[in-house]
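Table S2 (continued). Query chain:
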Amino acid sequence: MAFLQRKQIGIESTGTKVSIPENDVAKLMYYFNCVCYVIEYDDTDMQRYRDFNNWYLLSAREVRLLVALCYTLSPDVFDNKAFFRSDAMSASDVNKFYKINEVSHQVIAASSIVIAGRTRKVNRIMMYKMSWMHQYYFGPMRRLA
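Corresponding output:
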């Protein structure tokens, strides 16, 4: 676990603005994409589940697999390790990504996370508002599970 002291370190946003289709499968795919963006999760066979703009290409079996995958990679695995709730973000931002080595003093970030028995390196962190988590994880999971 890395603890960043009081001294201020430069912060650089690494994400981009995206438009997510109004569909629960697309929203879960976006959530999974965010997970893969913050941790070292570069399995090439998982790219299909990150392509939220083409959500309609997933079969019913693949949607069930996506739900199971998102259940395994639930927010409680990442909260206060790679995902940090911050309701102080601007009104236009509901989530934002930062390089882990460029975060200010108030954040404690894990250098790695164990998921399903495998250690994954944390490459970035994501700050989010609770509304983001409801829109892209809790709501879709409740409706699709």
